[in-house]
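hi support,

uploading two proteins for the ticket. first:
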Amino acid sequence: MTTDLLNPIFTDADKAREHLQAIRWPNGPICPHCGNCDRTTITELSGKAHRAGLFQCKECRGQFTVTVGTVFERSKIALNKWLLATHLLTSSKKGMSAHQIHRMLGVTYKTAWFMCHRIREAMRDDVATSGPLGGNGKTIEADETYFGDKEGRKPTMKTDGTPFIKGGKAANKRAIIGLVERGGRVRMFHAEKANKETVRNIVVANVSRESILYTDESRLYTTLGTEFKGGHETIRHTAGEYARGPVNTNSIEGVFGIFKRGMKGVYHHCGESHLHRYLAEFDFRYNARTKLGVSDIQRRDKALAGIEGKRLTYRRIGEAANA
């Protein structure tokens, strides 16, 4: 299914609002203030004194629009531009830079940058409600990778001009833990440090231990692997082994590959305090990928369905979340 970028929802604010209402309220408006969903007690206000799409709840006397209680709340940007930005970000496999969004939408770069972060917040998976990865008979691949230098104090330089980094070459790199269910979903996490305790906490919180676990030979998983009822198999990359029958970590390596190509080729730079948002973006697109039968339009509307109950302000956007 191809996308028509001249679709009225991308050019007309009223059509965009109607589309968003159909996604958020398929059975009629719901008051975000008191939760009232009785159509007989919710009235759409009309006339010159009221803006389009304004409702009033007779139960709590509150007024609201479809953007109240979402990441779009209190935005001065036209809804059709929000929908177009969401479509561009969700349909581009390796992402789309805020500079490109700012040029295509005719907004400032600062506005486009903030819009992208709000959309990433809508993409964020609620781990508490979406359930664990894997299960009985299902395979989980786990691995860690390192991307970008940690922010803060720079390492001491040696006399030959190379950095002195205690603890190995990855000690000053940002650690990312990746978990993927074969043929299913992925979750990536930015950790302050990839050690046994951190890796175990992430895996236990996100993976069913009924699963089969495949990893490389890293000692991070030696003890953890014994907790999986489906068993734990390792692949020896250091010995030039990349597959032994079904045992491999090719899926999670592929996920990391897409992420790194997007970060290097599209985004170029990412502050450490924002890395978790970019990980959520790449997770979202992978979990709603074409191979699973999800079209660009369905992926966009899935992101729009995730705007509810989330807010992201300029003050909050700089808060670090490194784990």
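and the second one:
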Amino acid sequence: MSDKFKVLCLFLVIAVIVMAVINLNTGFLSLQLTDFLGKSTDSQIAEIRVNRVLVMLLAGISIPTSGFLMQEYFQNPLAGPDILGITSVASLCVAFYIFFSHNILLPEFLQNSFLSLAAIAGSLLLMLSLLSLSKKFQDKSYLIIFGFLVSAFAGAIVSLLQFYAENQSLKNYILWSFGANNMVSRNQIYVLSALITGGLIICFTTIKPLIGNSLGTSYAQSLGVNMNRLKIYIIAASSLLSASVTAFLGPILFIGIIVPHFCRLIYNPSRLWQQWVLNMFLGMLMMLLFSVIAEKTQIPLNVISSVFGIPVILVMLLKQNKV
């Protein structure tokens, strides 16, 4: 482990802690330390802010990790967590739930839970479909084409549902798609943590094979890397990580593409273990920063990530074109 990597990690850890503290102190009310530690009139607001920080940390870990896996497996710096269509299918399932459940009377906390459950169920269904089809898709590009077709089909169905939807249902879906980091409860954070932990465990098993994969398929196989097993693990890990965040926060765009790109710029791209760690630290820092901006400006989280991410991706495309 090089000194440069240690310095980078130390800097990012300090920056994450500072940004988390800023996040806890960002809002309409000024809170005291006792509001976070004990029971007071503003303890409920303090709990909401703590939940906001926790969910941003979890999103900052999972989304860049999912993008990192996709980019390393497909050897494409523009590959993101939604390349397999997982995010699109989660959005489709949420749309079905919002547009067809308005006549069902449920408590608000159950509505949020069922909404998240619908997104997770749809994403896991697509993940199982991808796993069953992965044996037939020997070429990696077929997976990308399949994901593109799924995303296009899901987008078409969502557009159709929006066309015939009632005003309130349409408004609820649009608000979900913007990304709501203040609506996640502590129990939902526990569920989100369990799903992300499962995805990270699978990710841990893929890093070493991905090092061989980066040297070429033939070379990886000569080292004993089981490419079919690697493909299954990559699909499972990326699906769990991206679907869980989409279910609870809505689609957070471009973070899974730009964070791995920045990490490759600041440290050796061939060091995948270190790259994974940097992706998680930088992802947490970026999500906390976006959360502060969202609270200060009242602009939806997804809009902020898009405004930041689109120019970065455009620069990446222009840079690749020059090469």
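thanks. also noticed: The radius of gyration is 20 Å.
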